[in-house]
From TrEMBL:
GO terms for molecular function: initiator methionyl aminopeptidase activity. NCBIfam families: met_pdase_I. Removes the N-terminal methionine from nascent proteins. The N-terminal methionine is often cleaved when the second residue in the primary sequence is small and uncharged (Met-Ala-, Cys, Gly, Pro, Ser, Thr, or Val). Requires deformylation of the N(alpha)-formylated initiator methionine before it can be hydrolyzed. The gene is map. It is an enzyme of class 3 (hydrolase). A divalent metal cation 2 binds at residues 111, 174, 207, 239. Its EC number is 3.4.11.18. Substrate binds at residues 83, 181. This is Methionine aminopeptidase. It catalyses: Release of N-terminal amino acids, preferentially methionine, from peptides and arylamides. Its cofactor is Co(2+); Zn(2+); Mn(2+); Fe(2+). A divalent metal cation 1 binds at residues 100, 111, 239. Keywords: Aminopeptidase, Hydrolase, Metal-binding, Protease. Binds 2 divalent metal cations per subunit. Has a high-affinity and a low affinity metal-binding site. The true nature of the physiological cofactor is under debate. The enzyme is active with cobalt, zinc, manganese or divalent iron ions. Most likely, methionine aminopeptidases function as mononuclear Fe(2+)-metalloproteases under physiological conditions, and the catalytically relevant metal-binding site has been assigned to the histidine-containing high-affinity site.
Amino acid sequence: MVELKTETSIDAMHAAGQVVARALTAARKAARVGVTLLELDEVAREVLREAGATSPFLGYRPSFAPTPFPAVICASVNDAIVHGIPTDYRLRDGDLLSVDCGAELDGWASDSAISFVVGRPRPADLRLVETAERALAAGIAAAVVGNRIGDIAHAVGRVCRTAGYGIPQGFGGHGVGRRMHEDPEVPNEGRPGRGLPLRAGMVLAIEPMLIASGEDGYHEAPDGWTLRTNDGSRAAHVEHTVAVTETGPRILTAR
């Protein structure tokens, strides 16, 4: 069931979204060669603590997971697409890092992700991240009253496929509200004009995931959480929580 949020509720989600934005900004600033993923997780934890917010990631255990998630960020490096668990891995020059973070504040959640290169970037990685961001922008632009979920999915998928990148099937965006994951699902590929109609008050996490090689294959790592590309190629993941309003999409996690 899809819950339509009031303007007051959307404002509250925006407050949570700004905590997420600050956490991601702080993590990106701290992400230097030699820094561990656990240290980045602690940076994000401190931002949440200072805001009086809690993490919807910490302790989260969906049906597929063998253990509760142990951190407040997902930190996915190079061939890891999403759901990477922060470890004592030290970042290296040229690593492609995706950081996903959520926050719950006053009973409302928001969720966002960024991808960037640590140190000296490869041109191919810069193109991958830039395309992911364009796909996200296209999906957000399609999140308007009168469109359908398929219009968002088509907008995201068209940017990714036109650039020659793969899309991991079965993973995409979702509704957000009192909980981090709510109805509806928001795929990263689909047919325009299909799916649930978009109405004012819907709040969606739109999150393109791209695989550099153009292949779609992925597998679950032994930790039961991290998804990795089958061919070892690099991946990027970006995300915003977006409210559908009568005046157009409102990005609640804008940095």
